[in-house]
Amino acid sequence: MKKTIKNYCFNATQSKLNELYEIALRYTSVKNEVFQRYGSISGLNYLSYPRQIRNEWVKTNYANKFGLQARYWKQAVDEVFSNIKSNWSNGFRKIKNNIYKNKNYTEVEKHYAFYLLKASILLYKAITFQSFDLPEIFKDKDIRRDKIHKYLKSRSRKYLRTKSYQNKNRSFQIDRNMYDIHKDNKGRTWIGIMGLTPRKRVRLQMTSSTESTGNLRIVLKGKHIEIHQAEDIQVNPIEGKDKRAIDKGFSEVITSSSGRKYGEQFNQLLKKESDRLSEKNKKRNKIRALTDKYEKKGDIVKSEIIKKNNLGKRKYFYQKEINLNEIKQFINLSLNRFITEERPAVMVTEDLRFTNWNKKLSKNVKRYFSSWLKGYLQERIDYKVMLNGVQQVVVNSAYGSQICHLCGRFGVRNGDKFYCEVHGVLDADHNAALNYLTRMSDPDITVYTPYRKVKDILQERLRLSNQDSRYSVIKTGQSESERTDYV
Question: Where are the beta strands (DSSP E) in 157-268?
Answer without folding.
Answer: 171-174, 179-183, 189-194, 201-206, 216-221, 224-232, 242-248, 254-256, 261-262
